[in-house]
Model the fold of this input.
Amino acid sequence: MPQYKVPLREIRYVLHDVLRAEKHYRELGRDDVGTELIDGILDECARFAENVIAPTNEPGDRIGVRRTDDGRVITPPGYIEAYRQYVSDGWAALCGSPEFGGQGLPESFGAPVGEMLVTANMSWKLYSGLTDSAVLCLEEHASDELRRLYLPKLISGVWGGTMCLSESHAGTDLGIMRTRAEPDAGGSYRVSGTKIFITSGEHDLVENIVHLVLAKMPGAPSGSRGISLFLVPKFLPDADGRPAAANGVSCAGVEHKLGIHGSATCVMNFENSRGWLIGEPNSGLKCMFTMMNHARLWVGLQGLAQCEAAYQASVAYARERRQGRNSSGDGSAIADPIIGHPDVRRMLLTQKALIEGGRVLTYFAGMQMDRALHHADPAARELAGGLLAILTPVVKGFITDMSLECTSLAIQVHGGHGYVRETGVEQFFRDARITAIYEGANGIQAMDLLGRKVLGSGGALARQLGGVIGSFCERHSRSEELAEFVTRLTGLLKEWSEATESIANRAARDPDETGAAAMDYLQLTGYLCLAWCWSRIAAVSFAALHRGQGDADFHRAKLATARFYFARLLPRAETHLDALGAGARTLMELPAGHFAF
Ligand SMILES: Cc1cc2nc3c(=O)[nH]c(=O)nc-3n(C[C@H](O)[C@H](O)[C@H](O)COP(=O)(O)OP(=O)(O)OC[C@H]3O[C@@H](n4cnc5c(N)ncnc54)[C@H](O)[C@@H]3O)c2cc1C
Done:
């Protein structure tokens, strides 16, 4: 079975060298978050991830969750003990607001820590993942009274949070949901309905579960403009804030699914359950978007984490497995390690290039959240908010799509031994698969990027992102050694900007053009962003080599991987540009009845 080893050196390189985390935190007035603190936390978290969480991964997948006849959900062996330590060691409260008992580290810190814990065991980390998103939503939209009552318990991890949107007939289209909320005499509401696919809807890790439920009030406008958000606890807190009376919330079943077997995906019934309105009536989707935007970045991180786990297993196997002859051997052994075969190298380098570039992009997006929330300068806050808005669907959609490719390549590297269970890599593929579906399927992320963010802002957000990449190109335009990257990046940025304009013109005439272009636009934007990230990496590693600083082999490996990315993965951007240009007709001319005869 693969043994997860936290890539601490990679994570430190991205934080300290590429993204200059210390400078970032200083700019936010957080001089206390310096190198020593960052590295200390990373070291400690790596030990926790490798020694406590990772051992629960394989049994969790094999044994899965179990629902008892009386509706309780039992998590796999070891989950409770690991979760207790997660809470008692303070990991749950790491980025929580000090006002409610949190340790107050900036949100972006959740990225490296989250990556380690999700790579160690994605299913286990899902139990606390949505709690963090729920906390953000309550901090921003809940009344003071609700915040005082619920946030300390959620931030400490003693209670858990969920997001209850989906119904059997209402997934992407939440406007047609049926769950109802009727006002009651005490100023609260009575929520009734059935939600499906609720992650961590019921389980045995926490003493209470706080559901954030979308529902419609009587007389609400039809469609998505008539949805409100309610806080519905499993147990109603008593006068001392302790979980007391049951609140009509029950788990009617758990799903049996392709992957994330250790995560409870629940059918949840709400029967006249007492709930409290969050935000204004009928503004539930707006409030829920605070939670969903955070959760979308977090799902991108899940995709990245599965790639990392699969890549580590691939490299270890490719170094060990001997088949055939290649230029790495001298003929003395029975056969040569497959890592010497060009095609195996193609698979490994594809994983490496997508992961390491993707890590820079994901952490960068996390830092924009810090800046958007905490920067003293309103202009800097606005710029960061814009970048975060446009990058969120890219991180969610592009990185999770790439996780399907990388985890599939890991199976391919293992050959038939990857397809059977004993090597453990097929689990990464199965676990990664959901990341392209939940929190808004990737087709919806593509529409969000192109329709809402780019066209919806009249192109302003695209110009912001283009401006950031453009100034990097400008800054390095005279560097001879970076020319192999920056010249191509500059050219692609121009093509991307022109494609954006051309789609905007076409979409003004035919609304189908947006949907028809969206996925290729998402992929194109993803490849552009990764080209920018790899150019940044190249700039940092060239500089380190000139200074004779650090391990030269590490930096040479970065440059070799950057070259691989530009030569062998970036050409995919051209395909997406061509497809974008083909327009809607090629997708729409076939009548629905002609798809199968
Ligand atoms: C393991 C798991 C955990 C989950 N956890 C949660 C959770 O905690 N809380 C929660 O509320 N939900 C959860 N979900 C639900 C998940 O978010 C939905 O499955 C997802 O949003 C898609 O909805 P759907 O399955 O109904 O698919 P549909 O909405 O029926 O979509 C089917 C396909 O059609 C496409 N499509 C639909 N509408 C459009 C459109 N307008 N334009 C273009 N394409 C479109 C979609 O992209 C998709 O490819 C979970 C699901 C799973 C499987």
